[in-house]
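hey
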């Protein structure tokens, strides 16, 4: 979920590069990009590849830059497309360096900025309005800026106005990612709900398979010429104690009442799984055993689920068609299902087995959303930590798989903000996540990075667990 959010996160609708050979339109586009970078630079952000902090036009302001709180400037500086432009070194914003300090002074001293600065909690719309007004009333009117631009022989009034209009449109398209963030948070909650639904659905699969077997046996009895075996079948499978217990379990009944789900629409899945079970050695041994017990009945289904149903390709395909979340959830939910079936087998006579809760406590309930927001709110800082320890002789920061970056940022968030989770547990967990979700070498890469990052964060006094 976090990967999808960060992959698609975009605060701006950027104008595409022109395909025309028109010099005027090409110049207008170049100026448009330079003006966007200029806004980021006014906020104190570096917009030149490889530049040192001392080379920034506003370096001497240190922490006295009122524009440093601009969300729009920060978003521009971190936007993926803008970063690509910076890394390619195709921008010509350096021609405006002599004007940046003067523009900064004019903006900070303007009436519109003073009114904005006095607001206690300026909102998104306030900042968008601020920059669009500044573009026309301060930036576009600055004599030094116009003088610098006119040194380019391709400069025209129409190209300048076109560039300004594009910038205004891009600024107007800016948002603080609230809508996509809300969607991502909603998807996270949905994924957790769906995982819990999968847990119940898998527990009920034996019930659906057993019902299919009951139908098959009944059809056999009513054949035109039934055999003795058809008329007197071995009923051990359909009378299995686990199937009866899970179907009548109070927790299951309550969940099914609130969240109706069944496998009736997956007739071919159930028929295929029943066939696999009936043809298995597990089934043959179970049906041939001289006697049975509730523990043996539960162990039979635990083994069937573990070795036949859960690894089934047809089950994986069905789950993928039913929910985009379920194939990712199948591994951990399978563990919970096997654990629950074992609990049914070890329960005392008359004891009601409690199904696993969705969360073990309030802290567990908050973990996912809080971890998600820690990464979202600190992604730029975490990325700086990561870039600090990338061996540039072996890796290029911009070419590292985004999934590896997301795994590392999430691990950093867990290390820093969840003191109850041991450091070794975090590192081992995210190494495994990297192996499962990224490239074959990702586990080794994440392992080395987290070792370096944990030592650095501890030296900086930010990490207080061993």
């Amino acid at each position: 979920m976090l990967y999808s959010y960060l992959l698609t996160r975009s605060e701006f609708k950027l104008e595409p590069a022109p395909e025309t050979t028109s010099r005027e339109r090409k110049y207008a586009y170049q100026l448009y990009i330079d003006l966007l970078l200029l806004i980021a630079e006014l906020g104190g952000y570096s917009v030149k590849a490889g530049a040192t902090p001392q080379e920034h036009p506003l370096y001497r302001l240190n922490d006295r830059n009122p524009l440093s709180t601009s969300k729009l400037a920060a978003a521009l500086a971190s936007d993926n497309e803008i970063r690509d432009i910076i890394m390619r070194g195709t921008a010509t914003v350096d021609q405006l360096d002599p004007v940046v300090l003067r523009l900064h002074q004019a903006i900070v001293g303007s009436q519109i900025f003073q009114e904005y600065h006095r607001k206690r909690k300026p909102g998104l719309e306030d900042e968008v309005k601020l920059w669009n007004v500044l573009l026309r009333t301060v930036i576009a009117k600055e004599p030094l800026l116009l003088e610098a631009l006119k040194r380019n022989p391709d400069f025209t009034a129409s190209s300048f106005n076109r560039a300004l209009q594009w910038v205004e449109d891009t600024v107007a398209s800016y948002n603080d990612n609230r809508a996509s963030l809300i969607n991502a948070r909603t998807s996270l909650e949905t994924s957790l709900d769906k995982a819990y639904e999968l847990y119940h659905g898998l527990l009920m699969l034996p019930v659906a398979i057993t019902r299919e077997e009951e139908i098959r046996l009944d059809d056999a009895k009513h054949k035109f010429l039934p055999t003795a075996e058809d008329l007197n079948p071995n009923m051990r499978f359909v009378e299995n104690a686990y199937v009866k217990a899970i179907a009548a379990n109070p927790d299951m009944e309550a969940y099914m009442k609130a969240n109706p789900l069944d496998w009736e629409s997956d007739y071919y899945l159930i028929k295929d799984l029943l066939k696999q079970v009936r043809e298995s050695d597990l089934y043959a041994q179970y049906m041939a055993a001289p006697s049975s017990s509730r523990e043996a009945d539960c162990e039979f289904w635990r083994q069937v689920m573990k070795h036949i149903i859960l690894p089934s390709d047809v089950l994986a395909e069905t789950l993928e068609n039913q929910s985009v979340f379920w194939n990712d959830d199948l591994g951990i939910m399978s563990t919970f299902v096997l654990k629950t079936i074992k609990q049914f087998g070890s329960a005392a006579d008359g004891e009601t087995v409690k199904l696993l809760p969705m969360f073990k406590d309030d802290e567990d309930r908050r973990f996912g959303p809080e971890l998600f927001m820690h990464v979202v709110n600190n992604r730029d800082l975490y990325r700086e930590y990561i870039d600090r320890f990338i061996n540039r002789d072996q890796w290029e920061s911009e070419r590292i798989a985004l999934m590896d970056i997301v795994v590392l940022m999430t691990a950093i968030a867990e290390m820093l903000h969840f003191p109850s989770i041991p450091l070794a547990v975090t590192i081992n967990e995210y190494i495994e996540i990297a192996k499962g979700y990224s490239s074959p070498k990702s586990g080794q890469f994440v392992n080395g990075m987290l070792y370096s990052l944990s030592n650095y964060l501890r030296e900086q006094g930010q990490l207080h667990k061993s």
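The chain has a mean pLDDT of 88. The first helix runs from residue 2 to 8.
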